[in-house]
Amino acid sequence: MKTKKLSRLAWLAAMTLFSLSLTACDKKENANVPDNVQVVVDTGPGGGSDIFARQVLKIAQQTHILTGNWPVLSKPQGGGLAAMNFLAERPGDPNYISAFTSKWVSTGLTADNKEAATVDKLTVIAMIADEQQVVAVSAKSPYKNFADFIADAKQHPGQLVQVGGAFQSVDNLASLQIQKNTGTSWKYLSFADAGPRVTALLRGDAQVMIGAQNDFSEQVAAGQLRIIGVLSNARNKQFSDVPTLLEQGIPMEGIPEELQFRGIAAPPGISPEAVAWYQNIFSKLVKTPEWQKYMEEEGSKTQYVTGDELKQKMSEYTSDITKLVTLLKEKH
């Protein structure tokens, strides 16, 4: 009887060790797969990237692509530098991603600290949206289109004002190229958030502002602002009566077609399994009707790109932005 009891205990002990061994192996095999994801953004609460990230997560949960909660971490310092550094300091960790924008490319190129992290040092997982840029003016403005603004800028060099984000933001970089293309010049008034920019436009402190459709939709609907141009080869669906800058005869050489895009990045050196895990989630997300509706409301379009095509696009975009940054450095 005693021998049988000992044998039974030995068998249970062996099974326990075997189970623990399987669990350890399973954890080892899945060590590179995210299990506690947090999303880093480069703006404070209510900023563009914060809103975008939360909307992405909301849609993913509504469509049951995600079942858990991914907290959003705000790292707004340095126009993307703090967020990039945060990721760079966690090499190989698959539990952090960021909803980044194309602004990160120009931010890295203009950083005073040459040791600061840049997008090319991170793992770029996917491009997911192209955020079309438009030009807005006060409803009281005499400009009927952007060509009118250019004509006025030629008559009053260095006197007109554009309001926008950081000096290295794509709205300022694009305007510097437009000034070069048209032989004009104007001032640039910088604010960190969209709210003060729109206020400056309404107050008459600036004549124009370049931004995304959602930066202006509320004020346009209220009759406070008007859209006078689109920085794209195609018109904006919501403001379909507004011609593109090209249609208005404004040369657009040197300005990337996808001027402002949004994507997903992670720390350097995360595993191919982790990259594939995230790509599986976001490839499903961008196919949902909820996502397509969100893109239409924002005046954006789905631009899901990964792999070698993404590397090529990032390389070409960086080359274009490097030239625009040269204009910025010449002016400042």
Describe this structure as you would to a colleague:
- There is one protein chain.
- The protein has 332 residues and is of the alpha/beta class.
- The chain has two domains: 38-130 and 260-331, 3-Layer(aba) Sandwich (D-Maltodextrin-Binding Protein, domain 2), CATH 3.40.190; 133-248, D-Maltodextrin-Binding Protein, domain 2 (3-Layer(aba) Sandwich).
- The protein has helices spanning 2-29, 48-62, 81-88, 103-110, 146-155, 170-182, 194-203, 213-221, 272-285, 289-298, 307-331; strands at residues 38-41, 72-74, 96-101, 123-131, 133-138, 161-164, 187-190, 208-212, 225-231, 261-266, 300-305.
- A six-stranded mixed sheet has the order 2-1-3-10-4-11, with helices on both faces.
- Helix 6 (170-182) packs across helix 11 (307-331).
- The longest helix is centred in the N-terminal third of the chain and has 28 residues, at 2-29.
- It is globular and about 60 Å long.
- Residues 1-6 and 9-29 have low confidence and may be disordered.
